[in-house]
Predict the 3D structure of the following.
Amino acid sequence: VQLQASGGGLVQAGGSLRLSCAASGRAASFSRYVMGWFRQAPGKEREFVGGISRSADTRYAESVKGRFTVSRDNAKKMVYLQMNSLKPADTAVYYCAADVTAILTTPVGDATGQYDYWGQGTQVTVSS
């Protein structure tokens, strides 16, 4: 499975961005994957941002709840991260990730170890 994240850029505080993640390879099974978004700021560990399960249940980190929304389009093999009301603290490289061994009841996890495949990351910079 290959994951390609895109949509990052430079935005002012309060602005919005939508990140996209395209799956290929074994993507015929995309609808069976739990998909997650993580981010990593300079000098910090990679942290969970949000994710979406096979049944489209979503989960978010407290720091982004109410501002970020994760969605998926299984027909297009895409997952999205809509980011609104961006803050300078949201500046980071954002990664999408896939848990390809998920079963129907697997929840969205916040640990990097749950995810088997990772995209290359896209930079998001929020200026004050």
Remarks:
- The first strand starts at residue 2 and ends at 6.
- The chain has a mean pLDDT of 96.
